[in-house]
Design goal:
By secondary structure, the chain is α+β, with helices and mostly antiparallel strands. It contains 5 helices and 12 strands. Helix content is 26%, strand content 32%. Strand 2 and strand 3 form a beta hairpin. The strands form 3 sheets. Strands 2-3-4-5-1-12-11 form a 7-stranded antiparallel beta sheet, with helices on one face. A 3-stranded antiparallel beta sheet has the order 6-10-9.
């Protein structure tokens, strides 16, 4: 069983043709049906890689590899369930990257990724999705666009971990982001869990944010682990991080 949260990052060349001749072949029948419904090749590739990455993670990171089924909770959050327990999941993908975060039952996990080069209508997005103080902070940074993406992915990761969805009160969320770490300043969704936010500097082309919570205080950090070759996917580079 997974004892602590883990994160798999699958990087690939967005322009590369990864889809094998004959199309993607996924072991899960439901996933195979879904992948065939995508008409956009890039979206089809991202979905296929997310399911292949999940299969690799299940086989390599879980002690009991049998009986696990991917299910969706009422909140929309994906989970793995088997007779031996539950693993909470969060999946995010963007051009050139698929991220899969996993956490034991009882711990919340959320991950979000965005490409740094994503075109932005910055002023419109700041007004629509940021608190006044966070919007002002973004405007005063050397790169307001990157500052916005750091805040945006934090919000997405946090809301995914809560199971709220992006239709939540974005303006009611406020983060302090700086050299002293990341802190949640204000939220309309208070709870009794202990939260840890992180933006590990392991990617060059993408912004990565993680939100995790447990019933007890955590003194830990995300650390890159040596990646077993059995986790790799053809045409991709897979990195493994663990919360220690």
């Amino acid at each position: 069983m997974l004892n602590a949260p883990a994160l798999l990052l699958c990087e690939y060349a967005a322009q590369a043709e990864l889809e094998p001749a004959g199309g993607w072949q996924l072991a899960d029948a439901q996933a195979q049906q879904r992948v065939q419904q995508f008409t956009n090749p890039a979206a089809r590739t991202r979905f296929a890689l997310s399911r292949l990455l999940l299969a690799k993670a299940t086989a390599q990171l879980l002690d009991d590899t049998t009986g696990w089924q991917l299910q969706t909770q009422e909140s929309g959050q994906p989970v793995l369930r088997s007779p031996s327990g539950q693993i909470n999941l969060s999946i995010s993908h963007t051009q050139g990257l698929v991220a899969l975060a996993m956490a034991p039952a009882g711990q919340c996990i959320g991950v979000d990724v965005e490409a740094w080069a994503r075109p932005l209508r910055l002023q419109t997005l700041l007004a629509a999705s940021m608190s006044l103080e966070d919007a002002q902070w973004c405007r005063t940074q050397p790169s307001p666009e990157q500052a916005f993406l750091r805040h945006w992915t934090l919000k997405e990761a946090y809301l995914k971990a809560l199971g709220c969805g992006i239709a939540a009160d974005l303006g009611g969320l406020s983060f302090a982001v700086g050299e002293q770490g990341i802190h949640l300043c204000r939220t309309p969704y208070p709870d009794e869990r202990y939260w840890l936010f992180a933006q590990p500097s392991v990617l060059t082309e993408h912004c990565l944010s993680l939100a995790s919570a447990s019933p007890f205080p955590i003194d830990a950090a995300w650390q890159q682990s040596s990646t077993d070759q059995s986790l790799q996917l053809p045409g991709c580079k897979v990195n493994l991080l663990r919360l220690h």
